[in-house]
Amino acid sequence: MEKDGVGVLQIANPHLLDLLSLPFHHNDPFDRLLIAQARSEQLTLITDDVKFNLYPVALLP
After folding, report:
1. What b-and-e string marks burial along 7-16, b requiring 16 or more CB atoms within 10 Å of the CB?
2. Which end of the chain is more exposed for a tag (fewer CB within 10 A), N or C?
3. What is the DSSP letter of 14?
4. From CA 60, how far away is CA 38, in angstroms rounded?
5. How far apart are CA 6 and CA 9, in angstroms?
6. Helix/strand/coil (H/E/C) assignment for every residue in 6-51
């Protein structure tokens, strides 16, 4: 994966702070953390979960 530019994003304090500010549109804690990390790091998520559309995060369906 490293050869393709894919790495592991560690959980950091800014991610957790953003997580605390998210509304509870989605009840899955892991998905909420992904959303918070993507928002904090200005990343795009790839998902077909329609609940992600309820958050201000870049999505690639």
Report:
1. eeeeeeeebe
2. N
3. H
4. 12
5. 9
6. CCCCCCCHHHHHHHHHCCCCCCCHHHHHHHHHHHHHCCEEECCCHH
CA of 16: how far to CAs of 3, 6, 32, 37, 61, in Å?
A: 29, 22, 10, 8, 25
Task: List pLDDT tens digits, range 5-54.
Answer: 888 999 999 999 999 999 999 999 999 999 999 999 999 999 999 999 99
Helix, strand, coil percentages for the chain (3-state, nearest 5): 50, 10, 40
- Which of 29, 6, 4 has its CA nearest to residue 16? 29
Instruction: Please give the structure tokens belonging to residue 24.
Output: 């509870």
